[in-house]
Each structure stands twice: as structure tokens, then as C-alpha cells.
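Risk mitigation, structural track. In case the binding assays with 2-acetamido-2-deoxy-beta-D-glucopyranose fail to produce interpretable data, a predicted complex structure has been prepared as a fallback.
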Amino acid sequence: MEGKKRSSQGEDDGQLNPMLSTRQHITALPGLILSSSSVYWGLSKDRLHNVAMSNISVTYSTSTTYNNHVLISGLWPDTTYFYHPSPLMKSTSTDIFNFTTSRRAGDNTPFSAAVVIDLGTMGSLGLTTSAGAPVTSTNILRPGEKNTIDSLESSLADFDFLWHAGNIAYADYWLKEEIQGFLPNTTIQGGAAVYESILNEFYDEMMAITASKSYMVGPGNHEANCDNAGTTDKAHNITYDSSICMQGQTNFTGFKNHFRMPSDVSSGTGNFWYSFDHGMVHFIELDTETDLGHGFIGPDQTGVFKGFTDVDPVNATMNAQITWLEADLAAVDRSKTPWVVVAGYRAVTNRYNNTDDTCPTCKDVFEPLLIKYNVDLVLSGHSHVYGRLAPLAEGKEDSNGLENPTSPWYITNGAAGHYDGLDPLQSPRQPYSRFGLDTTNATYSWNRLIFYNCTHLTHDFVASNNNTVLDSATLFKARTCSERSEHH
Ligand SMILES: *[C@@H]1O[C@H](CO)[C@@H](O)[C@H](O)[C@H]1NC(C)=O
Ligand SMILES: *[C@@H]1O[C@H](CO)[C@@H](O)[C@H](O)[C@H]1NC(C)=O
Ligand SMILES: *[C@@H]1O[C@H](CO)[C@@H](O)[C@H](O)[C@H]1NC(C)=O
Ligand SMILES: *[C@@H]1O[C@H](CO)[C@@H](O)[C@H](O)[C@H]1NC(C)=O
Ligand SMILES: *[C@@H]1O[C@H](CO)[C@@H](O)[C@H](O)[C@H]1NC(C)=O
Ligand SMILES: *[C@@H]1O[C@H](CO)[C@@H](O)[C@H](O)[C@H]1NC(C)=O
Ligand SMILES: *[C@@H]1O[C@H](CO)[C@@H](O)[C@H](O)[C@H]1NC(C)=O
Ligand SMILES: *[C@@H]1O[C@H](CO)[C@@H](O)[C@H](O)[C@H]1NC(C)=O
Ligand SMILES: *[C@@H]1O[C@H](CO)[C@@H](O)[C@H](O)[C@H]1NC(C)=O
Ligand SMILES: *[C@@H]1O[C@H](CO)[C@@H](O)[C@H](O)[C@H]1NC(C)=O
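Fallback model:
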């Protein structure tokens, strides 16, 4: 097992703790193969008297690290725990991290959550103040401009957890960044090392948040792209395709290795579809990339975009995701979790007249269920723009608008930031579009969801450079809230 190196900074002990009130997964000590991984934990920094262990240490052939997964169970809801991931109980205070478990379902305490989609690596391997030749100047950061990771770090007090619903790190941009003269050129064979270094750099950068917040993830196309979406090297007249794929990029391999979402306890599948409760909200992550069911082929599956991504379904059971979604929605106890919020990487409904960016088959399979079960809010990304729509069903806007609609409300924010910057909105915008920002006027940003009570939910678009809210809208649902129930 020698020859495997720790990830870039050698400092990344412990992160990424998908939450559930009674359990917490820790990805500990990337970089070391451990026959037994241990996490020391407790209710205060100086009393890490409990130890959780596992022998789950996973990697793949082109990886430079191991992912050691440890599950801690028997935790209280809404409680801050401290932990130290180490094979040995030796620590300095800088090695001690913390997380706060989710609020019990039915706890009506107001809270906020942060959401990002399409967030890439920042700095010298990704989005920074310079870029490769074809990237326009509006897409780079201004000197001193705070990026989205900086903004989230400076806002830790403002959200309970971070939900990153697809396109994590953009490590597959390595080849594009080389062809555009941003990174030094390597060979295709040497690309795996560059790919892995970008992934590890991203995980290190995210420690600013994951050292104390739960980080929930879902699949986007760049977790499976192998060729930077059909990159052409004009100098050598080569258009790359999936023949250059390396193992970390195929079949979501890196994504499957690094994360552990709570699909086992929500009957979902891997990091692809799952649900969890937090206070008065039931959150659902969907997979818009594969496994759409009803005979539809997901946009990342083999044969759809030739040469882009050639992914097999992640669950062999026929219609597994759609069957799960209906069962999950039908089981929601709205007296405990009146709000149901769904995120899936690609937009389920047309945001703009941009057929490239939407997923018509996602609409066909998911929208009927989102309508039938009165889902309140649906979030997506993929298009690197911000677009807030009216609540709508089957392309028709709800006549109630945000005042007690019966249709789901749709918001796309793919403007968290990555090497390639932002996209233009297509014109004309759909009549049900309420607010839009694109490359001409957008800023890198994240979403803040504020759940006040069972009737009021506010969505804020937060500009990363100055933490200013550039768009805010509140959804009202006429329903009777159950008695306010405080946690323990
Ligand atoms: C890992 O631990 C489980 C029990 O927790 C055991 O069944 C399994 O054999 C172990 N695997 C290895 C490779 O040691
Ligand atoms: C890398 O190769 C591309 C063409 O394939 C070229 O345009 C670029 O300048 C090269 N970059 C470096 C740093 O050599
Ligand atoms: C949790 O960790 C963060 C990051 O290190 C730190 O800022 C925060 O104070 C810690 N929380 C508590 C309650 O100690
Ligand atoms: C580029 O390659 C294609 C075949 O892949 C060839 O048809 C074309 O003529 C080449 N173009 C140039 C400018 O060499
Ligand atoms: C993806 O995984 C499937 C097994 O699920 C395998 O048959 C296929 O070869 C894999 N594709 C690639 C490109 O590795
Ligand atoms: C596939 O979905 C079924 C339920 O439809 C579930 O029982 C099974 O665990 C899933 N498979 C994986 C690999 O998660
Ligand atoms: C969408 O764009 C197409 C052309 O690309 C145009 O024919 C059509 O009218 C547009 N639809 C709307 C609703 O703007
Ligand atoms: C931003 O620019 C786009 C056109 O590119 C326009 O559709 C949109 O309304 C503008 N947004 C604001 C808030 O001005
Ligand atoms: C719910 O929160 C909103 C926003 O703070 C407030 O205006 C409203 O009065 C609250 N409703 C109840 C029933 O507490
Ligand atoms: C914050 O940044 C945005 C986007 O660059 C800008 O439109 C806005 O005016 C700024 N607000 C303040 C208060 O500086």
C-alpha cells in the first residue's frame, strides 16, 4: 500500500459529515490506508472519550489517496460534537473538528441552510484572477474579490448545513485548463495526477466549511465527465472524447469513493438519491444524471452525448429511483415536516428557452410526483446563471404566485463559480421567469434558505463578493403549524 501519497496539503484530517440526527459519517485521514480507522469524539474538546472505528478504507487505481469512512451512531439531535480523526489519540487543538447534528423532525425552531450547485476549485487550479486565453474577463475574479467558499466561511453562523447538489470541484477541467494555457501541459497519462490534485485541493479548500458544518452532496455531470465536455485542442486538431477517461472519472468513481450520504437509512441509492429531515423540513436529493426510470435514459448515460460521459445506471433495479421517490414523498409526515424541498442537478422544468440545459426527461419522470405530493421548492443548477421562476406546473404558472401556490416553486442557481465562469441567459426569457442574472450582470453567489415557521420560507441569493442579498423572495403556504416544539 506504499506509494500512495496524502493529498496535497497533508493537513486534511476529517471532513464531510453527512448528517442525520442520530448518526454521522466522517471521512477521516484521506491519504492513509488504515486497517482500522478511528474517530475520537465527545461533547467537548477536552473530553473525546468515545471512539468509533471501521475498516472501510477505499480507493481506486488512479487515486492518490484513501478514503477512510467511520460511522458514529447514538448521537443526540441538534447537538454539537467534537471529534479527532486519528489512528492514535494524539492531538493538538487544531486537529479537533466539530459538527452539529440535525434538528429532530418536528422541531419548529427557525433555521437557515446554504445551497450551492456548480461550485469548483478556487485559486491556482481553478477560478482565480486569471484564466486561460479564451475565458472572458468578466468570468475571472477581480483582485481581492471574495469567492463563494470565502463567503460561506464568513457566513458560518448563518446556516446549519451546506447542500452541494452537483458539480463538485470540476477536476475534469484539467485538460481544458491545460489546452487553454492556464495549467502546465501534461500527457494524457499524466492527467490522472492532475485530476486527483484538483479534487484534493477542493476538499482542502472546503475544510473551511466542513470542519464544522455537515456537507450534503449529489451527483452532477462533472462527477462523471471524462473529456471536459468534448474539449478541442485546436493546436493539435484533436477533439478529446471518453476514450481518455481515467478511473476516477468513469461511473462517478471518485464521487462514490469520497462521500457517504444517508441513503442506507432513507432507502435510497449511494450518494445519488436519498432524503433527510432537519427540523420542519424534509429534504430530498435526486439524481438527474442517470436512472430516470420509465425507460428514459439519463443525460449522463452511455450513448446520450456521445463521448461526453458514458455512465451505467447506478441501480440495477428497474425504475428504482422513481419508485423510491414516490414512496419517500408518500411517507412524509407533513405535521412534522410541513416543508418538502427537493434538489436535483438539472432543472426539472424549463427555466429559459435553452433546451441544452434543461432535462426534458427529468420533467417527464419527476414533475408529476413533485406536483402530486405538493413539493414546496425545487432547486437546480447546471446552467451557470441565476433564475428564479414562479411556482408552476406543466409550464403554467400558478395563479397564486408565491401566496399559497399549489404548484412547486423552481429556482436555478448554477452561479457558485468555477474556472469557466458564468453562462448567458437565452432570450427571450420565459414569461414565468421572475428574476434572472447571467454573465452580463451576475456575481458568484450561493443560496440561503430561511425557514421561519410552517408558513414562511425565504430564498435569498447571496452575492459572494460582499455577502449582499441581491434577490429575496418569500413563499407563503396557508397551513396550521403544530405546537412549537423546542428541542431537548
Ligand atoms: C470489516 O469489519 C466487518 C465487521 O465490522 C467484518 O465483517 C469484515 O470482515 C471486515 N473486513 C475486513 C476486510 O477486515
Ligand atoms: C499546452 O498545449 C496547448 C495546445 O495543445 C498550447 O496552446 C498551450 O500553449 C500549451 N501550454 C503550455 C504551458 O505549454
Ligand atoms: C467548530 O469548529 C469551527 C472551525 O474550527 C470553530 O470556528 C468553532 O468555534 C467550533 N465550534 C465550537 C462550538 O467550538
Ligand atoms: C483535423 O482532423 C480531421 C480528422 O480528425 C481532419 O478531417 C481535418 O482535415 C483536420 N484539420 C486540419 C486543419 O488538419
Ligand atoms: C461502468 O461500470 C460498469 C459496471 O457497472 C462497467 O460495466 C463499465 O465498464 C464501467 N464503465 C467504465 C467506462 O469504466
Ligand atoms: C437499488 O434500489 C433498491 C430499491 O429499489 C434498493 O433496495 C437497493 O439497495 C438499491 N441498490 C443500491 C446499490 O443502492
Ligand atoms: C425558443 O427558441 C426558439 C428558437 O431557438 C424559438 O423558435 C421559440 O419561439 C422560442 N420560444 C420561446 C418560448 O421563447
Ligand atoms: C441581467 O441580464 C439579463 C440579460 O443578459 C437580463 O435578462 C436580466 O433581466 C438582467 N437582470 C437584472 C436583475 O438586471
Ligand atoms: C411565520 O414567520 C413569518 C416571517 O417571519 C411571520 O411573518 C409570521 O407571522 C409567522 N407566522 C406564524 C404563525 O408564526
Ligand atoms: C455587492 O456586490 C454586488 C455584485 O457585484 C453589487 O451589485 C452590489 O452593489 C454590492 N453591494 C454592496 C452593498 O456593495
